[in-house]
Amino acid sequence: MYPIKTLTWFLLLSMIFSSCQDQQQVASQSPEPTPSFRSTGPVGGPFENGDFYLIGLPEHIPPVDTSPGWDQPGQRLLIQGTIYHQDGQTPAPGVVMYYYHTDIQGVYANREGLDPQVVRHGYIRGWVQSDDNGHYAIYTVCPGPYPGTDFPAHIHPAIKEPDIENAYYIDEFVFDDDPLLTPEKRSEMENRGGSGILTCIQREDLLVADRDIILGRNIPNYPTSARD
Fold first, then answer.
1. Domain carrying residue 60
2. Among candidates 65, 57, 140, 158, which has minimal Cα distance to 102?
């Protein structure tokens, strides 16, 4: 017959062993944990006045647009290019690009009939939508730099893809020969959608610049499931 102390230890060890077996059995029957994915925010990150592109948005958006600034007495400008998917080779149709810029005086000018919500963007604004081959073209006037500043002249573009809920901005269009576009300012550019630096060619009275756009390039929170 076992001594009482030995019997007590034996019973205690048996209970611990039985408990461990039960826990292992429950664990083996439980399904594998499902990985959780937490959203890191909207595609492109914070975008001040990102909804402005919706104000005045036409029902039909062509691939070619002539801006309200075309008739200003300045240097006329054509920006054209192709919008590509992430692979940089496959054209992306149906992508809307919203743009706005200053007038030739460097001011986001107001005018009669301009929606008061978008006065900050001025009246020189518009939209293009890439065609079946991803092409777009914008006819406008060269903007002036902000008066009394060292900011280079620029055009603000934003992209709205069919399968992404929000619009996001890409690098401003700036001009390679602008003396205000210093090496320091060039180094600060993020190359969102590719380089925004325009090299213009003079064709009679028109400056022509090519600007291809690659969707998702250097865009924060861009979905990895988007088409490559």
1. 52-214
2. 140
In a domain, 114, yes or no: yes
Looking at the 3D structure of the chain, how many domains does it have? 1
Does residue 228 fall inside a structural domain? no
**Percent residues over pLDDT 70 in the chain:** 81
Provide CB contacts within 8 A for 165, sequence distance 6+.
Answer: 42, 43
d(CA 143, CA 4): 97
Mean pLDDT computed over 160-182: 97
Two structure tokens written together for 68: 């309200």
At residue 137, the 3 state secondary structure works out as: strand
**Residue 208 in 3-state DSSP?**
strand
Q: How far is CA 123 from the centre of its chain?
A: 23
**Residue indicated by tokens 């979905």:** 223
What H or E segment, with its residue span, contains residue 11? helix 4-29
β-pairing, 76-84 vs 213-214, is: parallel
What are 105-138's pLDDT values in tens digits? 999 999 998 999 999 999 999 999 999 999 999 9
pTM: 0.81
